[in-house]
Amino acid sequence: MTRASGRRLRAAAAFGVAATLVATGCSVSVKSGTSNVGPTTLLVGGADNGTPALFRNFNPFSPNKRNLTTWMYEPLEVVNNLDGKETPFLATGYTQPNARTVDFHIRQGVRWSDGKAFTAADVAYTFELLRSHPALDTGGVWQHIASLSVSGDHVVFHLKNADVPAAKVIEATLIVPEHIWRGVKNPVTYTDPNPVVTGPYTLARFTPNQYTLAKNDRYWQADKVAVQKIVVPGSSPDLAIATQGYDWAYSFFPNVDNTWVKADKTHHSYWFPPGGIVGLLPNLTKAPFDNLDFRTGLSLALDRQQIADKAEQGYVKAASQTGLLLPNEKASLNTAIPNQGMVAQNTSAALAAFAKAGYTQRGGKLVNSAGKPLSVNLTVPDGWADWMQGAQEIIQQLRAVGITVKLDKPQPAAYQQSLQNGDFDLALGTVGGSGSLYQDYNNLLNSAFKKPVGTSTASNYQRYGDPATDALLDRFRTTTDPAEQKRLADQLQRVVYQQLPEISLFYGGLWGLSSDKKFTGWPSPQNPYASLMTWGSTPLLVMTHLRLAQ
Q: pTM of the predicted model, to two decimals?
């Protein structure tokens, strides 16, 4: 479960924003509504958290790295997860002379923060490092690459198969300096405590409670970087974020207008664009979920916007059944699908579909041909209060058509294991939001992920499988023709709309809060060059757009 697609509702205490406040859980001493960390310093919340203390790990390939590692190390290109647009960073671009070859042109004139020159050799070294230490290859790039070669300022990747979407997997890899890492005895356990980087910031100070990044004066686009320092507390309670001078935070605030915005109506704003689809994942290996008529009945029985409103307090919209994030991916929409793929609640049509599947209402209960009432389990991770509120609304709506739903609330780790092993009836889960149409549909539909129940799989938890759909995905993976890619995306949308391998409910919001008191140029609906995510490489786009407020 990624933060982009499964962010839980954070409990927030009621508070009066006009009161004089004491700093709580934050080692930066600030007054209400103002920050004493300097006019060119960014105070960021919800970006990293100690458990309870911060551990000094900046290894970019470690699953336990500090989150702002990705504000220092750079990839070849950054993908805007909202619309899939690629922005060159350590590469100036790439070409695909055929479906099995990706040629990246490596940027010249870049220096590492210790003054050494960055070259194509660093790029080649990084990928060979991941090949020789598979535990570091968390992005799975060597699942796609057969070999690579360097020619001047070009690094050419030779793929195992015709695999056009592999370029987006490769380009996201963070690049490390060969002259530092070649002396590391065990790169897998290495914590990289003093990272040497190409990015806009270097590590300035670290304590168990807070760390600070400082502008990298050797940065190759230093003229685009206005923020001189970044302060990252190890704990950022919502109360502190709202009232103690934070400039940027990723946090779901209940009643955000009366909390975050009210704290500074002049400067505080928020933007919650869709970052994934929250939906019902039916276990397609089990009856009655393996029956399309039954899944159709489930889909028609639900009022998606009402579920969205209960779960996320009206801040997100009901989701399209096409598998697209709208309006982000509206340009890719199959216009032949009615109403942009939105499915309206229709109880009579739902009951008719259930009847086709062998279930009819009797005494207010949906029963099978033997008269046995239908009861199903809905799996939701414990502690995710927003999803739990959505689940309660789902239970009520399905009860109205005669289905008894029992709530299964495993801890998040056990929840994830249940999904991977296929140990569930229905589950709330997330799909989409990768920034790649192919990757989103491949993760949802590819039968290569259709493992037997009890065997872990990385995607397609519902275990959908269809040879015709696999053929569409194969063609999508191998074509470089944009028109053909659009035709294939249209057909894959129709598969999701008609076959209901998952039942889309609402969009998972990216809970971005920003203040223009010190800095302007934040992402917004009017300027959606990025989201306000504080993790991954997205902040590189933000930090090269911000300007000092006048």
A: 0.86
Q: Would you list the DSSP string of 403-465?
A: -EEEEE---HHHHHHHHHHT--SEEEEEE--SS-HHHHHHHHH-GGG-PPTTS--SS-TT---
Distance of CA 160 to CAs 62, 140, 157, 341, 445, Å?
26, 13, 10, 36, 21
d(CA 506, CA 306): 10
Inter-residue contact 165 to 477 (CB < 8 Å): yes
Which residue type is seen at 485? Q
Residue type, 542: V
Cβ atoms of 92 and 76 closer than 8 Å: no
Q: Please report, for residues 93, 155, 158, 211, 459, the alpha-carbon distance to residue 145 in angstroms, rounded to integers and kept in the order given.
A: 18, 12, 6, 36, 20
pLDDT grade, residue 52 (50/70/90)? confident
- The answer, yes or no, to whether residue 324 has pLDDT greater than 90, is yes
Residues 6+ apart with CB under 8 A from 200: 71, 72, 215, 216, 219, 221, 222, 225, 540, 543, 544
| Segments in 265-346 forming alpha helices (H) | 292-301, 304-312
Enter the tokens of residue 540: 């590189």
Asked whether 194 and 131 are in contact (CB, 8 A), the reply is no
SS3 of residue 202 by DSSP:
strand
CA distances from 307 to 202, 295, 396 (A): 44, 18, 10
- Taking residues 217-225, what's their average pLDDT? 97
Question: Strands 229-233 and 41-45: what pairing?
Answer: parallel
pLDDT of 37: 67
Report the chain's mean pLDDT, rounded to a whole number: 92
- The span from the first CA to the last CA of the chain, in angstroms, equals 40
Helix (H) or strand (E) holding 474: helix 467-478
Three-state DSSP class for residue 201: strand
- Name beta bridge partners: 431: 277
Torsion of CA 7, 461, 288, 394, to 10 degrees: 0
Burial class of residue 366 in the structure, from the number of CB atoms within 10 Å of its CB (0-12 exposed, 13-18 middle, 19+ buried)? buried
> DSSP code of 384?
-
State the Cα–Cα distance between residues 447 and 349, nearest whole angstrom.
Answer: 30
Mean pLDDT across 345-360: 98
Q: In sequence order, which residues have a C-beta less than 8 Å from that of residue 72 and are 6 or more positions away?
A: 58, 195, 197, 199, 200, 201, 202, 203, 213, 216
- CB-based contact 25:160 (threshold 8 Å): no
43, β-bridge pairs: 231
